Amino acid sequence: MTSQTPQTSQRPADRTQDRPLRVLAAMSGGVDSAVAAARAAEAGHDVTGVHLALSANPQSFRTGARGCCTIEDSRDARRAADVIGIPFYVWDLAERFREDVVDDFVAEYEAGRTPNPCLRCNEKIKFAALLDKALALGFDAVCTGHYAQVIVNEDGTRELHRASDMAKDQSYVLGVLDDRQLAHAMFPLGDTVTTKDEIRAEAERRGLAVAKKPDSHDICFIADGDTQGFLANRLGRAEGDIVDESGEKVGTHEGAYGFTIGQRKGLRIGTPAPDGKPRYVLDISPVDNTVTVGPAASLDVTALTAIKPRWCGVAPAGRGTYTAQLRAHGGETEVTAELVDGTLEVTFAEPARGVAPGQAVVLYDGTRVVGSATIASTVRATAAV
Amino acid sequence: MAYLDHAATTPMLPEAVEVLTAQLTATGNASSLHAAGRRARRTVEEARETLAESLGARPSEVVFTSGGTEADNLAVKGLYWARRAADPARTRVLSSPVEHHAVLDAVDWLSDHEGATVEYLPVDPHGRVHAEALREAIARNPDDVALATVMWANNEIGTVQPVRELADVAAEFGIPLHADAVQAYGQLPVDFAASGLAAMTVSGHKVGGPYGIGALLLGREYTPVPVLHGGGQERHVRSGTLDVPAIASFATAGRIAAERREWFAQEIGALRDQLVEAVRAAVPEAILGGDPATEGRLPANAHFTFPGCEGDSLLLLLDAQGIECSTGSACTAGVAQPSHVLLATGSDPDLARGTLRFSLGHTSTKADVDAVAQAIGPAVERARNAGLT
Lengths: 385, 389
Prior knowledge:
heterodimer; A: Rossmann fold; SH3 type barrels; Elongation Factor Tu (Ef-tu), domain 3; 3 domains; B: alpha/beta; Aspartate Aminotransferase, domain 2; Aspartate Aminotransferase, domain 1; 2 domains; 3-stranded antiparallel β-sheet; 14 strands; about 15% strand
């Protein structure tokens, strides 16, 4: 599926400049960021590669398809940079990453919310700590392997759009970027419709050894993929009740923080629901360490409020109609939204499911990212829990 | 391009390249008895004699190794094992906190795995070990000291150690002293016999020879326990087929470097002084590392701390302008660490992250100095804005 192509009067940001830009390419050691850096260099920009050391105690080697912060990944990135023919450095942002991403991740779960650490990393690390240092050192832009497009309008303002290839689009995790951050962002992979195989073929053609490297999945700082175990380690086990919508106890859990709204698996409830249908997590209450479950229909929400809005451009005035994306890889939902006293109030055209506080709601106008905010609360279609 | 990282490696001398390539076309294992072997052996022994002469040593005191790291490991571990075997009480190793990692990590390993007690001798703010400090350390119990190891000249800040005085103290107690002279060879008068050292490390690629070849100068009365066991080449303390081309090329480079040493100290030393002046003029708050006195530091070394800057940022900015230098300190997983040398000299940890080492060599020119003079001011300003992350 290909999304709408932006108008012809607009051009991708990395093609509008007559002069070559000084570009800092963030290189994880994966194939996407390596090809992105290669494309930026091929376009004539003066590119320097940087691998971010985000772990204070990196593992020596990758295990499986997870993680991105081993020493092996750093070497893969360096190897790619050497082949592309660009300088390469490792910058130690482990402390910032721990403070701004990992600690925040744990605190959000502890508070019963479901954070998106990738979004947070883009907001606080790649397009903040890294970008600020890059700008201070005289770079013009930070380049990453994200699939999204930056369009420059004739008046010089910038827009963030979904990638040409909707299936690969990552604009959701970039929805937190503001004007200033966008002005210095470069996504060389966003404007081509390519399958992963084609990106790998391109890497192969460019002589990049990462061409065959497996994709990374999940959360980079939880190398074994066991988020529950990671949280239990940080927060300790705290047994509590699982209750149904009437408040009746139907089971126990080992920590309310281990759940996500809409979760079905891993509830381990002994007694079946009266109607025999599956039950889902409806609510997480860290204060009394209680998890509420109920039928799928109870997951339907009609509206939400979201805080800490960030706009790609000017904040829209009044109530507007948008499409919204409520989680990474999630579909689009039609909404109306309005900014009221700094809080975003979003109403769904049709009830939506699996809306978890802590996640971002990203608003789109067609392919254009309008802005984003962090979901704080929802309004249920059925009677409140 | 301004290449100012000769302490990392210096371009090969044309004469050394010529010898290397000529030897690469010849066949012969120096341990073989036939004509090809005899030719190879003659080449090796002539090289040994040449190298020994350039270092004030006897040919039999030259033990060829794969480089400085191996020579350091052989000296430190081999002498430790041999001395402890002769007397189990000898488990104390005296070293300095400013050593190269080839020595530091070797003594740490002895401490972790071989029951050694490592004692780091105090250094002054220039990173210098004083003879009295060595005397004091040994005198506490002369019987339990296995060996002492103190580098001839520091690779980061260029400080020259009082090797002769240290060796005299060690000799008084009958304790072998090893010195890593990798940076000193070709820059300072290095005379093994006159030094009084028991063992001394030199390396080929730091004096215009090839990579992968070095030597441990080893007094005839010392027989370290081998690190590499095998065919018994090199006095039975270092086995392995001799690398004839590398050995011949190394000897040629070593001979020329020693012959040109006075010229080097004067001419390259003068360029270094200009570089120091230029950096100070552009960045008055820059702190010169090591001993400011000419006789106290390597003639080709200029080391600076730039307060408020990260060395890595400066490196990136200078690299972008074709100036190649080093922060001087080691990396862990590619991440720059504060220099252990600067920390040992009492430097503040934040300051120790903002260092640059410019090291000149036989191909350095006034143009290299001018390039630094032009670039360093703006680079420091930028790096300071980027701050310490």
